[in-house]
Amino acid sequence: MVEGVIFDMDGLMFDTEPLWTDAWYIVLPEFGIPEVPPALPDAMRGSSGDTAYAIMRSYIGQDADAPAIWVRMKEEVHKMLEKGVVKKPGLDELLAFLAENDVPMAIASSSPQSIIRMDLDHGGVRDYFSYLISGEDVDKPKPDPQVFLVSAERMGVNPAKTLVLEDSLNGVRAGAAGGFITVMVPDMIAPTDEIRALYTRECKDLFEVRDLLASGEIDA
Questions:
Q1: Does residue 47 have a pLDDT over 80?
Q2: Which listed site, 8, 124, 128, 191, has its alpha carbon 20 to 30 Å from 39?
Q3: Based on the domain organization, do 160 and 110 belong to the same domain?
């Protein structure tokens, strides 16, 4: 069995990625940008900090007030999340399996702490996680592995024996760069040839992750 499991959140645990997409269409017009570049929402997934600002400006202009836009994006998504979240298939079952086997769990998400805590509370799963690491807690966002390495350090586990679960391309890049057992559960973006060369395995849902852990097909 693996020493620990580190979960991404949006798109992996909860079906929240469409909310972030919807928020772009609300927020950008407030900043005088009437059209949302079609590729922008996908390009931004899994990003935060200066990386997110650079991606945003590459699509909507170098003069865009990216930090202010990002603040409004988080406010808008926070408002949407107050209505609750939809769990991804197999989440409860996977969490229960890991808890039964005394496997420690952490969240390593690009979302801010306030949104992480709200989602976990709405989903009724916060008690499973001893460590919640957000994009606000690290200097280098995904695809840099820092958020996963910090999580592993706090958990007291070896990255090479720790499972990272991700749905985003940058998340897979970060997990692989940190030397983790990296499993992709695709949500809104399919893996590319580059990503297939990086991840350990691809699973169709969290039920499959649980089953492969139980059978020893995903192991340290």
A1: no
A2: 8
A3: yes
